[in-house]
Amino acid sequence: MVLNYRVRLAAYVTAAVLFAASGTNAGAQESGIAVGTKAPSAAVETLDGQPAELSTMFGKGPVVIQFWATWCPTCKAMEPAMQAAEKKYAGKVSFVGVAVSVNQTPRAVQAYAAKHVPTVKQFFDRRGKAVDAYEVPATGFVVVVNKAGVVVYTGLGSEVNLDAAIKKAM
Fold first, then answer.
1. Which CATH code, of 3.30.565.10, 3.90.1310.10, 3.40.30.10, 3.40.50.10860, is assigned to 2-169?
2. What is the pTM of this model?
3. Model confidence over 82-93: pLDDT tens digits?
């Protein structure tokens, strides 16, 4: 299982680097968890190391999940759009960051998140459970879940139309 996770992580790190370098205009993707799927639970951690379940975020309203890393250029390019969406949908939509564990620690993620995305609920995916459950193809992957807990959108990259994706969940 650990080997599979490491191979998968190495593949999506490579994909993220290639994607960022390609300059491709991205939007909804055909990779990752299928739209229409019930959003799965996944064992993650809070940034202070406490066990948590991603599913605790579902059922209260729409949720935007971003799989990210501190070193990810695509994720950095997405920050302005994510912050604008957080501001626009404050109180109506929950925003969740799931930091992958490749080349980063919870402490590094915590420091970065406090500076760049202080209002977003953050989790650390130490064992890759969320990455596997959501079939994450690369960092910078966004999943939008509606109130019923169903995936209504997936997208990859800085050109994701968050407004349109969130409207699908409302």
1. 3.40.30.10
2. 0.82
3. 999 999 999 999
d(CA 126, CA 102): 9
Task: Provide the edge-to-edge strand list for the sheet that holds 121-125.
Answer: 51-53, 43-45, 121-125, 94-100, 63-68, 141-145, 151-156
Task: Supply the DSSP string of 64-85, one letter for each residue.
Answer: EEEEE-TT-HHHHHHHHHHHHH
pLDDT per position as a tens digit, 137-149: 999 999 999 999 9
Residue 28 confidence (pLDDT):
52
Q: How many CB atoms lie within 10 A of CB 103?
A: 11
pLDDT exceeding 70 applies to what percent of the chain?
82
Cα 147 to Cα 33, 124, 150, 166, 170: the distances in Å are 17, 23, 7, 11, 8
Q: Burial, 72: exposed, middle or buried (Cβ in 10 Å; 0-12, 13-18, 19+)?
A: buried
